[in-house]
Structures are given as C-alpha cells and as structure tokens.
Amino acid sequence: MARMILASLLIVSALVLSGCYNIDSGASQLKIAPVEVSVIKSSEADLVEQVVVSRREYRQVLESLMAHYENAGNSMKLGWTMNELASFDKVIRYNYIIDAIVAGPDLRANESIELATYKYLDIVKIENQAKALLVIYNEDLLRQALAKYNGFIREYPTSDKIDDCAFRAGGICEYFKDYTIAVLYYQRAYQWDPETENPAKFRAAFILDQYLSRRSEALELYQDIVDRGALGQRYVDFAKERISMMTQSHETLE
User: Fold this and answer.
1) Could you tell me the pTM of the whole model?
2) 84 and 127 both lie in a single domain
3) Full pLDDT tens readout for the chain, 254 residues
4) Residue 76 and residue 147: Cα distance in Å, rounded?
5) Domain range holding 63?
6) Which CATH number goes with the domain that contains 221?
C-alpha cells in the first residue's frame, strides 16, 4: 500500500513539474522587459502612425524569418514562426483615430473616368462574391473589398464612383458592427456627392438613432430626408415616423 501511495506521489510530482507544455514549443518563458517611452512631444496622430508602421514592420520581418527557416529546411522553427504569425493576425487592431481611416469631406465625385469605373465594378464583384451565400458571408472577401474601396478613393479622388465606394464601405463596416466608422463612410458619400442616389443619409441617420444614441444628429438628418424627399417614399415615411416618435415622446436627443 505504501509503495502504491509513493508511486502515485511520484507520478503526480512529475506531472506538476512537467506541466501541460508541449515539448520544444519555442514559446519564451521570459517576460518582455518594459521600455521607457517619452510621449511628451508626440501627438496622438504621430503615436498612432508609429503603431501602424510597427505592426507592418513586425509582420514583414516575421514573414522574412519564416521564409529563411523554410529555405533552411528548419521545420521546427518554421512552425514557430507560422504559429506566431497566425497569433499576430488574430490580434484585434483598434482604429484609434477614426477620421484618419476615411478621406476628408472635401472630395467631389464629379469626374467620369472609364478605367476607374471598370476598377470599381471589379471591386463590387468581390463584394458580391462575399455575399453569394446570402445568409453566411465570406468575411475575408468583405475585408478585401473594403480595403479596395479605400484604395480606389485614394487613387481616384475625383471619380464619380467615390460616393458609391464610400456607401458600400459603410455597408461593410455596418455588417461588422463598426457603427461609428460606418456613419463616417455614409457621411462622406453624401458629402462627396450631395445628389448621390445611394440612401447614405438614411443609413447614417438610422445608425445614429438606433445604435449610437446620437439622436439630435439623427433627427437633423431625418428632417433633411423629409424636406428633400429624394430618396423615395419609404425612406421619407420612416423618417417622418421617427421624427414624430422622438418629438412626441421627448426621447433623449443626445
């Protein structure tokens, strides 16, 4: 009996000492040493830009290291770099300065550019492919389309398609529940083309009203939709109903 107890204790001790770690996992057990950082003379924009650049450089160096181990035939370290890269890609990246994501309000969608139109339609195809299953969207393709819409706006800032790009980008952000950014895209759509055929102003008002509780801004947009009546009767009717509900029930407007 004593031998059985002793054997059990030895087994438990071995398990405790060995832990649940994989052999040669490559994971460092050392804590990252803190680094003194001076931010006194740095603006928020500068710091955020440094974060973005550092993310990009870190990924590029990690990919180079992965290629090195692949060429060297070092499968163990190749696996480590692949795991680290996969973990890095899963890290949430926050948009610290939302306005920096979208071009400013002063662009004008007033030039018909044939090549730009073809490129725009190609991006729409990617977005449509992402939505091919109707119920389940391909989120990687949606992100690809979003990046391309932004790239289009940078490349063709005077194209008559930039308001369409902004509207569709807003829709993608709305799908991902990035409501504040979605509103900004919708605002840019009707700022860049005040006569846009897209219901950008309605989508902005709806999100401000229903999700962000910025109802004074929503009320102003709803009223403009009613006054202009350009988006179609169903949008006007909804706007009238919300105006009536907010004013009669004294909903909090801010």
Assistant:
1) 0.70
2) no
3) 556 555 554 554 555 455 555 666 666 666 666 666 665 567 665 676 677 678 778 888 988 998 999 999 999 988 998 888 888 877 766 666 665 578 899 999 999 999 999 999 999 999 999 999 878 999 999 999 999 999 999 999 999 999 999 999 999 999 999 999 999 999 999 999 999 999 999 999 999 999 999 999 999 999 999 999 878 899 999 999 999 999 887 665 55
4) 34
5) 42-94
6) 1.25.40.10
Burial of 15 (0-12, 13-18, 19+ CB in 10 A): exposed
Backbone φ and ψ for 32, nearest 5 degrees, come out as -70, 125
Question: Is the residue at 22 inside a domain?
Answer: no
The Cα–Cα gap between 154 and 127 comes to: 19
Same domain, 178 and 65: no
- How far apart are the C-alpha atoms of 181 and 178, rounded to whole Å? 6
Q: What is the largest CA-CA distance in the chain?
A: 91
* Side chain identity at residue 41, one-letter code: K
Does residue 254 fall inside a structural domain?
Answer: no
Cβ atoms of 169 and 154 closer than 8 Å = no
Could you tell me if residue 20 is inside a domain? no
